[in-house]
Amino acid sequence: MRGGPVQTLVRRVGQLGGIFEDRNSWSAMNPEAVVYSVQWQEPVPQETEGGLFWGSTTIEPGRVGDEYYMTRGHFHARRDRAEFYCAVQGEGMLVLMDEDRSTRVQIMSPGSLHYIPGHTAHRAVNTGESPLVFWACWPSDAGHDYDTIAERSFGARVLRRSGVPEVVYEALPSRTR
Fold it and tell me: What is residue 4's DSSP assignment?
């Protein structure tokens, strides 16, 4: 990204304890290995009602055990705020989970546009062999709630099984597949 002040966040394996199911594989990995990075612009102050932020995320290819690299995932602090993702490179999945833990997955591929409604947690997963890159646009007053996911996790995981991605859902009676 260019133009205006660009902010950057890099998440490494060692910073993502607790999001991957296979803790033994996670602890054996290089903690400095980059899992994903985010660049974004904030043209208005955070919490500005009616403002928008714009950014891009790059998730590197890789796995912790059989589980593909992914973002931490979050709800918005202001739950009613929506967001858009647009994939530009690579292959992946967008995992969406409602507040009642109903979970669904959308395929991400170059040009795919994803509307993430309010009250929906979201996490992107790289299922390919090259970086997954996508753009995002979200309200400047949305905020992030990572704690709910850290406490309750997502309703599904994406694992490599027999050489291909497989979505493994938690056993919850209210889930939509």
Answer: S
